[in-house]
């Protein structure tokens, strides 16, 4: 059996052409992958901060809206004492939690994603419960048919319940966002 040997001699100026593969450095695919990873890193660092800022703002607005119907009902009861206790404890607790999270991020400290997800789910359940009891008291007050009705306090109660519902949704979306990034390994 005879074997042949193929020898290619190249001069200095001759090159064998190279086929670019997906993901090679300097190709379009690698630059798209780099942008995708950059976007993912940006989302993992700024996404939770944006959510916590929105949650903190809604918590503060809920406290402001709920204060007048809860404290200034001299002759008529607009909200019950259990509703006041649940609402103030939820609003105050999650104002503190969101503020602590934002301070930790400002100091470049990492909050574990599992811990953040548990707090977000607790916020979802807390604000959903607040919305339910606030709307129930609002409905009970409307059915009493006091004349003349104090529509300002009824409107404040309804707005506080609506923003509690909104904040429950924001907490739920934040927990899903954090769980997704944490499961991918983009969050510590």
TrEMBL record:
Keywords: Membrane, Transmembrane, Transmembrane helix. It comes from the Eukaryota. InterPro entries: Ssk. The chain crosses the membrane at residues 86-107, 119-139, 159-179. The keyword Amino-acid biosynthesis does not apply. One of its GO terms (biological process) is septate junction assembly. One of its GO terms (cellular component) is plasma membrane. PANTHER family: GH08457P (PTHR36692:SF1), PROTEIN SNAKESKIN (PTHR36692). This is CLUMA_CG012606, isoform A. The lineage of its organism: Eukaryota, Metazoa, Ecdysozoa, Arthropoda, Hexapoda.
